[in-house]
Amino acid sequence: MEFMTAGESHGPQLTGVITGIPAGLAIDVTSINDALAKRQGGYGRGARQKIEHDQVQIVGGVRHGVTLGGPIALVIVNRDHDHWQAIMDPVAKANPENTLRQVQRPRAGHADLVGGQKYGHRDLRNVLERSSARETAMKVAIGAVCEQLLAALGIHLVGYVQSVGAHDGGRIETDDVTAIKAAVNANDLRVLDANRVSAIHAAIDDARHAGDTLGGTVRVVANGLPAGIGSYTTAPAKLDGQIAAAVMSVNAIKGVAFGDGFAVADRPGSTVMDAITWDADHGYQRASNHLGGLEGGMTNGMPLVVTAAMKPIPTLYHPLPSVNIETKAVSLANVERSDTTAIVPASIVVEMAVAIALTQALCAQFDDSNFARMKAQVAAYREELRRF
Ligand SMILES: Cc1cc2nc3c(=O)[nH]c(=O)nc-3n(C[C@H](O)[C@H](O)[C@H](O)COP(=O)(O)O)c2cc1C
Ligand SMILES: C=C(O[C@@H]1CC(C(=O)O)=C[C@@H](OP(=O)(O)O)[C@H]1O)C(=O)O
User: Fold this and answer.
1) Cβ(238) to ligand 1 under 6 A?
2) pTM here?
3) Residue range 2-387 in CATH 3.40.50.150
4) CA–CA dist 223, 208 (Å, integer)
5) Is 92 exposed, middle or buried (0-12, 13-18, 19+ CB in 10 A)?
6) Residue whose CA lies nearest to ligand 2 atom number 1
7) What is the ipTM of this complex?
8) Cα 115 from chain centroid?
9) Percent with pLDDT over 90 in the chain
10) Which helix (H) or strand (E) holds 197?
11) How many other C-beta atoms lie within 10 A of the C-beta of residue 374?
């Protein structure tokens, strides 16, 4: 399974194409739109989300709610394009007199300067329109299709905010609880401890008032994966590498870890390895899950636990010094309308990145032509594992 997205942040639409999803998979548009709505939510978002009301249109590869086996084509319209028609027209020639919304003072931490240097753009808007995380709306729609395949195989994912940076340089943690799913759906911050929400809102307010921004960490848990997805045999076949690449490709994600993460480096092996157990009903399991469900580049049947670190939003309303690329004068960086933090949307974008990577691994390992055949193969494989 492969996918591609196209489209600029203020262009007419986002377009997505997915190949390699088997025929015969039921697709529910409502749940794709629910995922899109979650991505638009969260405290600390900028004004753009008041304009957009993301809804997917399926325009290829699905008939009467069931996949056909061909490329699946998806569209999400950018409502904000109405305000940008002349500036972002894909066809009409630019009016050289109209310098409105041109960008010449690159923002540190965004793609502006290096993207301009690499692609030869003097108007850095040509960079930021595509480097914008607006693209993650389509990634979520694609991931929501993947989650439907995974759910039909008994594999369920949830993403949530684990911590948010604080304006004083500290960190506000949210608490892990067992009823992750219910709690995640219960509040807009997708955090698990309601008492923490007001502290997090206050930290985000502080940052906004100071013209500053915040990052944080998000966690994704996937339950129901059979052991042995991925492989130890070659570097590109290792599932941990595939998931890390998918998660790191999300805008502003700067770190990824599995299970207990970087902490394992400081602990003795006896407290990090997960002891092997066996019973007739479940076959092999692990007594703990420090390694986050991965051994040797393969799932081991325990929940997959992925944590990702997001840097603060690069656009600062109190901008850092920059350089005007035309005059070379020291100038404050350009200020674009922006989020103060996007940690809540990041929790669903990272969840969907993991869903895409898992779907790719499953489609590579089992029949990817017909979903009923894939499902039967996965069920037979689960039984083989139980009897091993
Ligand atoms: C959901 C989401 C929303 C974002 N919103 C903004 C934003 O409003 N302003 C901004 O400057 N960066 C925003 N970012 C981050 C930038 O897109 C990102 O930092 C930039 O593309 C540079 O890529 P890098 O941080 O991966 O190096 C957002 C990221 C995500 C995941
Ligand atoms: C549009 C989205 O996020 C955008 C991501 C983004 C960036 O630089 O990454 C900058 C902002 O764009 P705008 O200037 O149009 O408000 C965000 O709103 C979205 O998430 O739907």
Assistant:
1) no
2) 0.96
3) no
4) 37
5) exposed
6) 134
7) 0.98
8) 22
9) 86
10) helix 194-209
11) 23
